[in-house]
Specification:
- By secondary structure, the protein is of the alpha/beta class.
- It is built from 14 helices and 11 strands.
- It has a single domain, classed as TIM Barrel.
- The strands form 2 sheets. Strands 3-4-6-7-8-9-10-11 form an 8-stranded mixed beta barrel, surrounded by 4 helices.
- It is globular and about 55 Å long.
Length: 346
């Protein structure tokens, strides 16, 4: 495991801004004469009134389903206990990054081609077992990092570790990409962007083999616009993760010249689609693809979801139905044996 240099943690305050979890909009793009700024109008204008209504209702339903529940009211004593636990965990997290503790690790979930089921990449997913609190959920680790000034350091650790593990896979199979989640804390810093490029170069990995994933919420903040532009200029692939549940949706997609859009799992997970809803989802995917965007379906829970994803034109699938996130050694075996252990037929 790659231990993050202590100097990066010591200088963390220089990298972290008050809007650490937010990233600004990216660059506009075009297909022919149609600007991506007109994406929503372009999409709706090509459909019947009933499909237009279904489209807007479907997007609203998915967005509403993705809203977090209101936080429970806590008394002062409970808040104090929670703050103490967070402080303990943040200290342990910092130590794990510095010391290269194997309890802090990455697992890798395969990305599968909808047509044929070939392996096309992996997404690096964070796993951490606290020495006192046991397994800590990934979203809690990210919250801890953001609240304790470790967000950019953790982002960079994840990138370093993923590239170190994944470089042999990418060298063996020229069709694979490696997806890594990043927050505004890292990509807002010009120093960090240079370090990201150096991390890839150290392992002989080209920037276009790495896809940096950001959430829709990240697109609401202008502060990282220069960083995102620099990453694009450097050749990194960029993806919008959990598309449909954030604040931006199609209205802001035009501000981000994405290479990949990952439809949130709430579009699937056994969801039943009447004809108009299916037509609306198909129209959305078709429009994204017309703008040169690769569409990934998350949350494929079984044959029904697989059939829907294929019917509407999703090119890549990611789901525990195919494979859990696996260890680096298991991913190496998967790539080296060039085997396809899953079935992608309904």
């Amino acid at each position: 495991m790659t231990a993050i240099p202590k100097v990066h943690l010591d200088n963390n305050a220089r990298y972290l801004s008050s809007n650490a979890m937010s990233v600004g909009p990216l660059l506009p793009g075009s297909v022919g004469e149609t600007q991506t700024g007109d994406l929503l109008n372009f999409l709706l204008a090509s459909e019947s009134a009933s499909v237009q209504r279904s489209m807007m209702r479907l997007l609203q339903e998915v967005a509403d389903a993705g809203m977090p529940p209101a936080p429970a009211c806590l008394n002062a004593s409970a808040h104090a206990v929670a703050a103490q636990v967070d402080q303990e965990l943040a200290s342990q997290l910092r130590a794990a990054m510095i010391e290269g503790d194997p309890a802090l690790r990455l697992h890798y979930q395969p990305l599968v081609a909808a047509s044929g089921g070939n392996l096309v990449g992996f997404e690096a997913l964070l796993r951490w077992t606290s020495p006192t609190r046991g397994q800590v959920a990934p979203h809690q680790v990210l919250r801890l990092a953001a609240g304790s000034g470790l967000a950019d350091a953790l982002d960079f650790w994840i990138l370093q570790e993923a590239v170190a593990n994944g470089a042999p896979w990418l060298a063996r199979n020229g069709g694979l990409t490696l997806a890594v989640n990043v927050t505004g804390a890292l990509i807002s810093s010009s120093h960090a962007i240079l370090a990201m490029r150096a991390a890839l170069a150290a392992h002989g990995v080209a920037t276009n083999r790495v896809c940096l994933e950001v959430t829709e919420e990240v697109l609401l903040d202008q502060s990282a616009k220069r960083g995102l532009h620099a990453l694009q200029q450097a050749g990194f692939r960029l993806a919008i993760d959990d598309f449909g549940v954030g604040h931006s949706g199609l209205q802001r997609l035009h501000e981000f010249k994405a290479d990949v859009v990952k439809l949130d799992m709430k579009f699937f997970l056994g969801r039943r689609y009447p004809d108009d809803d299916l037509a609306a989802l198909r129209s959305l995917v078709r429009t994204l693809r017309q703008f040169g965007i690769t569409v990934v379906a998350e949350g494929i829970a079984g044959p029904q979801d697989y059939t829907v994803a294929c019917q509407v034109g999703c090119q890549v699938l990611q789901s525990f139905w195919f494979s859990e996130a696996i260890s680096a050694s298991a991913a190496t075996e998967l790539v080296e044996t060039d085997r396809c252990p899953w079935s992608v037929s309904p």
